[in-house]
Structures are given as C-alpha cells and as structure tokens.
Write a structure and sequence with these properties.
Strand content: 15-25%
Largest sheet: 6 strands, antiparallel
Number of domains: 2
Order of helices and strands: EEEEEEEEEEEEEEEEEHEEEEEEE
Radius of gyration: 37 Å
Mean pLDDT: 86
Shape: rod-shaped
Distance between the termini: 61 Å
Low-confidence stretches: none
Number of helices: 1
Number of strands: 24
C-alpha cells in the first residue's frame, strides 16, 4: 500500500480536481473532519427518545416523545449546510405539540420566530441555507406509518362498542378481511351464528307442534370484552375462528315456512335454513310436527314439537342435530295424547327444551338465550309455542302455547282457529307457532330468520 503525504492538492490545469476513479469510495479516517463539502442530506439518529425540551446539534436526528407534555426544541446556531431532523416518537404531537425555536437572530423559513409541529406521526428535516432564509424545511412527512396491530375488514352493518368493531349480517354477504392483525391474539374473533327457526305445524283437527329454534353458536374471544351467553363455545378449540386476510362468505338462514304448503290437514312445518360463517354452521330449527306425523324430518338446531294425537308413542323432534359442543339447541316436546283437547308441544329453544302440552293448553316454547355481542342484551333462538283445539271443535277457553319468553319464538294458535299462530321474530332465529283450528285448515307460522355477528378488537 502506497502512502502520500502532502499539505495541498491542486489541479494542474482547469478548475476541476478529480479524486479517485469511477466506482471508487473515498472515505475520511476515523476522527477526521471535513469542511467545504457540506452534508449529504442525512442525519445520524439519536435513538434515545427525547422527553423534555433540549437544544439540537447539527447532523443529528431526534425522536421526540410528547406523551407527557409539549416540548421545545432549540435549533443550533446555523451555518450553511447544517441539518437537523425530528420525528414524532409516539404519534402524540397532535395532542402535545413540539415548538421549534431558532437560535438568536437565525430564521426559520425567512422569519425569526418559532414554529409549531402539531400533526400526528409527523417527521421533518431542516437545513440551514443562509442568513436570509435561515432553516428551511426540506422534508415533511405527515403520513403515520405504523404496524397493523388490528384487523381491518368490511361487510355487513358495522358499529363500534368501546375498542371493538361489530359486523352484523341480517342477510347474505361477505366478511372481507383486507389485513389481519400483526398481533396473533387479535385475529381470534368473537361471533354469533344463529340459524333460521323452524315453521309451526298446521291442522284441521288438533293443535300442532311449535317450530324449533334455529341452532345457536357463539364464541367470545378473550380480547373482546362483553357478556356472552352461557352457551359460549370458546373452551372447545374447534369452535374458535382465527381470521386471515381473505373473504369469508356469510350465509344467513331463512325461517322455515309454517305447515308448508301454506295450510292443510295435518301438515308439518318446514325446517329453517342453516347460517354459516367460516367453519361454523348452525343448523336450521326443526319444523313443528303435524297430527300423527313422524318426527324423523323435524330435527335440527332445536327440535320441533309434536302435534296433539291419538298415538301415545309419537315423539317430538330432536335438537342439537348435528351435534356440537356445547349443544346448539334442545329437543321439542310431545303434544297431548287423546281427547278431549289435542294440544301441540312447544318447540325447543337454545337453552331450554320445549314444554310438553298439559292437555289444557299448548306447550310453551323453550327459552332462548341472551348475549351482549352487539353491545346491548338481545335474546335469540326461542322455541315456538304449540297450538290447541278443543275436541269436536267446541271452544273450552283453552290457551294456545306461548312462544319462548326469551328468544322471541312465535306463540301457538287456537283454540279452534280464532287466534292465528304467530311467527318467530326476524333475525332472532325463533321457531314459528303451531296452529290449532277446526274444521277449516289452519297454517302454522313461519320461523324467524337467523343472523351472523362478528366482533373483533380494532384499536
């Protein structure tokens, strides 16, 4: 290696002096300084955030933390080419600002006054130009680029509750996650999936069973605080849904038609339709069962009640079909056997089985269950009440079965047709009420449609 020691290098001719060749790197020895070249436009960043007022040093960049209060930064006495940068450390300058003060008679943008930085996430770079303009801001970023700690998503009707966003689907749609959270625990969402309730049975000669409630499935994520129903399925890992940046089609089940095809002699109600979110499917509620009709097709999220009958062995529909843990519903109840009053059993609800017909009234629908996933307590998935008719069409003052007191299942009809069965409430998944009438065919009521709700932490 050669060594050259000189005090001055001058050009032989002309005014241009070239040091090195194309592609070479020219460096200064450690500790050496230079004058006349100016800076390259960059700073050396001080990574210890400033939490109190200070005087800046040329060539340095500073992260300024105003969490605890406003801060004043005094610029150094300026020489041409001096440079200072500042950045909002905790994105709090919009709350507690930074005041930039020039030294002595120096100026900031041609004015000998301080400047205020009060934009969230702002970063600025000042270069001292000359005595006329002083410090000039040559770079100003107001973009707040941060890591994505939370889910970003669209779809359904969006509301907020505290730090949570809530997407409510009352019909088909898509829960579209544009970006997942960088914090894995925030990708585990809370959800409510309720299927359509079953329709009530219809008849000309007896009270018919109430429709079963639509299947009820819920998971409460630990990061989304609210009061869930007792049927929270979080403890069972297969129930949990962790979302990724993709589209999740949403299916909201319709309520089953009452005593399809709309009335007739001893006709079963139709089963409600399933509701689906990701890997979670809630089964439609079983339809109310007609007079002496088999119950095999009237199983579902909750089972439909059976009609009043002459057959003591007739059974009601089974709930939690297909089975889930915890159970998505309960069984329907049997109707009263034999004369004089043929009353239908109640449909099963999410948290309580349908009530048997006592013979003097239709069976009450099984209770649904309340949850606060939407921000306020709402009850879902109650069973429909059973209908009633007096023997030989003679009114005896008997009562139709009440719909679920919790979950808005429809009430049964009767006696003898003066009072029509009522439908389950829309988007609550309640079963439709069973009919009771004589001698004119009376239709059972339609089950309530289902709902899908998704809740997650967004800030």
């Amino acid at each position: 290696m050669s060594k050259i020691e000189v005090n001055q290098i001058s050009s032989q001719c002309g005014s241009t002096l070239t040091i090195g060749q194309s592609g070479d790197t020219v460096t200064l020895a450690c500790g050496a300084t230079q004058t006349g070249f100016g800076r390259t436009g960059t700073v050396d960043w001080d990574t210890t955030a400033k939490t109190a007022s200070f005087t800046a040093v040329s060539g340095n960049g500073y992260f300024v933390n105003t969490t605890s209060g406003a801060i004043t930064v005094t610029l150094p006495a300026g020489s041409a080419g001096d440079i200072v940068s500042l950045a909002d450390y905790t994105n709090t300058w919009q709350t507690n600002s930074v005041t930039i003060t020039p030294n002595g008679s120096d100026k900031i943008g041609g004015v000998n006054e301080g400047a205020i930085l009060n934009t969230e996430g702002q970063s600025v770079t000042f270069v001292f130009v000359d005595s006329t303009e002083g410090w000039k801001n040559i770079q100003d970023s107001t973009s707040n680029v941060t890591g994505n700690a939370f889910i970003n998503a669209t779809g359904g009707t969006i509301t907020t509750c505290g730090n949570c966003k809530i997407h409510t689907f009352t019909g088909p749609g898509t829960f579209c996650v544009s970006s997942a959270a960088s914090c894995a625990s925030n990708n585990l969402v809370s959800y409510l999936v309720v299927a359509g309730g079953g329709g009530g049975g219809g008849s000309t000669s007896s009270g018919l069973g109430g429709g079963g409630a639509g299947g009820y499935r819920e998971v409460k994520s630990p990061v989304t605080p609210y009061t869930a129903s007792p049927l929270d399925g979080y403890p069972s890992a297969p129930n949990r849904v962790t979302v990724t940046a993709t589209a999740f089609p949403i299916t909201v089940g319709a309520g089953g038609t009452g005593s399809s095809p709309g009335g007739g002699t001893n006709v079963n109600g139709c089963q409600g339709s399933n509701s689906i979110f990701s890997t979670i499917t809630s089964a439609g509620g079983g339809g109310g069962i007609g007079f002496c009709f088999p119950a095999s097709s009237k199983c579902g999220g909750s089972g439909g009640g059976s009609g009043g009958n002459f057959v003591p062995t007739q059974i009601a529909g089974s709930g939690n079909t297909p089975p889930t843990t915890p159970a998505q519903g309960t069984n329907g109840a049997k109707g009263a056997y034999g004369s004089p009053d043929y009353s239908g059993g109640g449909g099963g609800g999410a948290s309580e089985a349908g009530q048997p017909a006592p013979g003097t009234a239709g069976g009450r629908g099984g209770a649904g269950t309340p949850t606060q996933i939407t921000g306020s307590p709402v009850s879902y998935a109650g069973g429909g009440g059973g209908g009633i008719v007096a023997d030989n069409g003679v009114p005896t003052g008997l009562s139709a079965g009440a719909g679920s007191p919790c979950g808005t299942g429809g009430a049964g009809g009767g006696p003898d047709g003066p009072n029509a069965a009522t439908a389950g409430t829309t988007n609550r998944g309640g079963g439709g009420g069973g009919a009771g009438g004589y001698p004119t065919p009376v239709a059972g009521a339609t089950g309530g449609s289902g709902i899908v709700v998704i809740r997650y932490k967004y800030q």
